[in-house]
């Protein structure tokens, strides 16, 4: 078969009819130009897809933003309904949610805070007064017969301690008696008072001689004993019943009678008694027990206190160690 026939067989009749070939039956448009047009055509086809993707992404973001806005509005509405509901439940007529924001004056805020602080201070003071009213009177007054402040017991001028006849221990068959409790326990300020932690002297009459921590103008004295409630026997027959108090400026001076008092076995465990004012300050005090509530063998002293004011702040006894 000739080459012209082969060439004609490769040509398209459709292209020939559309003017694709010239007179010599050669293609009018070159291959490169055709490829260039095809490439541009393909590139132009892809661009709308990119724009479409960008538009779709923008639409998605817009949809996400709209979704968040709707959720925010729903949350605000829910909060408003809750606040309104609680407000109505408390019997209030106006809603706490205000459509406008008001800014308070800083001076007014400071005044309001200061007013509240004064109110709280008044409440604290009132609470302290109520607490003090529940305490024994002796606990809110200074005690000048306290050993830790320098007060001392004058053993040579006090009654002898009661010695029990019962043996506490035995050693090689020899009974050993329990040593008596020192009278110092009376001025050591133990609290609370416990059964057995006391000084006992024989019989219903006895006395305790004390050196005060400082020269004192005595206004009150306090005598303490355990109550019937915590007594193992349910009774306190060894408690003092009637007692007297004497004051002396010097150890060898004549005793000044400050008063005679009655300790109530059915009253409070710690009982305070008022003494008429004296101009002279006393350095020594004598507690004289006249009788007890019926115990035949001994009388017990648990606690004794002396209250008042310093007679002379510049004059201090050598035993004193308290700070005023």
UniProtKB/TrEMBL annotation:
It is found in: Nucleus inner membrane. Keywords: Coiled coil, Membrane, Transmembrane, Transmembrane helix. Residues 150-311 form the SUN domain. It is a single-pass type II membrane protein. It comes from the Eukaryota. SUPFAM superfamilies: Galactose-binding domain-like (SSF49785). The chain crosses the membrane at residues 64-83. InterPro entries: Galactose-bd-like_sf (IPR008979), SUN1-5 (IPR045119), SUN_dom (IPR012919). It holds the Pfam family Sad1_UNC. GO terms for molecular function: protein-membrane adaptor activity. GO terms for cellular component: meiotic nuclear membrane microtubule tethering complex; nuclear inner membrane. This is SUN domain-containing protein 3 isoform X1. The gene is LOC108889577.
